[in-house]
Design brief:
There is one protein chain. This protein is elongated. It is built from nine helices and five strands, in the order αααββααβααββαα. Strand 1 and strand 2 form a beta hairpin. The protein is 46% helix and 14% strand. The mean pLDDT is 86. A three-stranded antiparallel β-sheet has the order 3-5-4. Strands 1-2 form a two-stranded antiparallel ribbon. Helix 5 packs across helix 7. It has 183 residues and is of the alpha+beta class.
């Protein structure tokens, strides 16, 4: 590869960032084409598999992220005591509804869950997992919610298309459109 000498540069940039870095940003920093960045990342991924190393590069939230290999999680857990910020069942249910039905209003979420979700939506927004994505063209123009890049990063997804098929997951027929809620 013509730019093979830049593999270490890509690895160092991904390590230093700690977050997903888009190919075009890497290309800009290294002053090469994004296609060459993709080729460098592909070679790095192959090197990391072949060398049985502890790190890998994942496609996350529209960029590349240097991560430890998932199979090494138990040993890493021994090194650091993870302060788990567990989400409540209500938060997970609400987040799942937003992820699969976005853009969705609070009222639509409440219609599905059968309970008020004001506090849960606020908590999810404070954690950066959801955000306002617009206003629904309905009476009162209620806020529409969607997931964020932090949501993708948290769940290791490259895009929302990587979410499992809900109907297949639940082993049911695909649901009809959400009923129009009185806004």
């Amino acid at each position: 590869m013509f730019y093979g000498h830049l593999k270490g540069h890509v690895e160092a940039l991904l390590f230093a960032s700690g977050n997903p870095v888009p190919a075009n940003k890497l290309a800009q920093i290294l002053e090469i084409d994004a296609e060459n960045v993709a080729a460098l990342v592909a070679e790095l991924k192959q090197d990391m598999v072949a060398a049985d190393r502890g790190l890998t590069i994942l496609d996350v939230a529209g960029g590349y992220q240097l991560c430890s290999k998932p199979e090494l999680a138990p040993i890493i857990d021994k090194l650091i005591e993870v302060q788990e910020a567990r989400m409540s069942l209500a938060a997970m249910e609400t987040l799942a509804i937003i992820a699969f039905k976005q853009p969705v209003t609070k009222l639509e979420i409440e219609h599905i869950r059968g309970v008020k979700v004001d506090g849960v939506v606020t908590t999810l927004a404070e954690r950066g997992l959801i955000k306002e994505v617009g206003r629904k063209e309905a009476i009162g123009r209620p806020i529409l919610y969607g997931t964020t890049d932090d949501f993708l990063k948290c769940f290791g997804l490259a895009t929302l298309d990587d979410l499992p098929d809900l109907a297949e997951l639940l082993n049911v027929e695909p649901p009809d459109e959400l009923p129009e809620a009185d806004e």
